[in-house]
């Protein structure tokens, strides 16, 4: 049984971009031949589902491998002019390396699936947490290596989600100004 504190830590990082849906999580296809080493580095949130709990800006994720070979993710965001940092350990699914799991503290890992990336400019990232298959919370994030992307690149990323029957009609641009 997951503790309430762990449940909160699992849901809060996702709260910046969550969609509530009935039923179990879908199983979208992920990036074939994914290589974490090529994925490392900074990714900036370009578009995501709307924020419900707070207004975040300057959201970024930095994936890295530390000196001991441990994969890490450091998430940074600005909330009410204060910078907040969350750090997690990254684990890859052996059979499907694009299915990352990010562990915060000692909680159950959060899924962080790379549906598509070119490694150099854009990534389509999806996460879903199911609650007894009665409902699920989805996280949809279009990420870029820069704080903005051309509209046609964003549209291509949206098409990745749509091909996997993931609704992107409510995606909103991220605030990456004044960062």
TrEMBL record:
Belongs to the calycin superfamily. Lipocalin family. This is Apolipoprotein D. The keyword Nucleotidyltransferase does not apply. One of its GO terms (cellular component) is cytoplasm. GO terms for molecular function: lipid binding. InterPro entries: ApoD_vertbrte (IPR026222), ApolipopD (IPR002969), Calycin (IPR012674), Lipocalin_ApoD (IPR022271), Lipocalin_CS (IPR022272), Lipocln_cytosolic_FA-bd_dom (IPR000566). One of its GO terms (biological process) is tissue regeneration. Pfam families: Lipocalin (PF00061). The keyword Transport applies. Keywords: Glycoprotein, Lipid-binding, Pyrrolidone carboxylic acid, Secreted, Signal, Transport. PROSITE patterns: LIPOCALIN (PS00213). It comes from Myripristis murdjan (pinecone soldierfish).
């Amino acid at each position: 049984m997951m503790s309430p504190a762990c449940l909160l830590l699992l849901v809060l990082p996702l709260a910046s971009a969550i969609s509530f849906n009935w039923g179990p999580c879908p199983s979208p296809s992920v990036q074939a031949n994914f290589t974490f080493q090529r994925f490392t580095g900074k990714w900036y949130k370009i578009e995501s589902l709307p924020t419900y709990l707070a207004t975040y800006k300057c959201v970024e994720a930095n994936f890295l491998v530390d000196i001991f070979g441990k994969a890490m993710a450091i998430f940074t965001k600005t909330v009410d002019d204060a910078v907040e940092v969350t750090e997690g350990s990254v684990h890859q699914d052996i059979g499907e390396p694009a299915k990352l799991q990010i562990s915060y503290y000692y909680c159950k890992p959060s899924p962080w699936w790379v549906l598509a990336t070119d490694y150099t400019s854009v990534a389509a990232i999806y996460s879903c947490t199911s609650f007894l298959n009665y409902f699920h919370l989805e996280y949809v994030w279009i990420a870029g290596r820069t704080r903005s992307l051309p509209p046609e690149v964003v549209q291509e990323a949206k098409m990745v989600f749509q091909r996997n029957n993931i609704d992107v009609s409510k995606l909103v641009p991220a605030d990456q100004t004044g960062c």
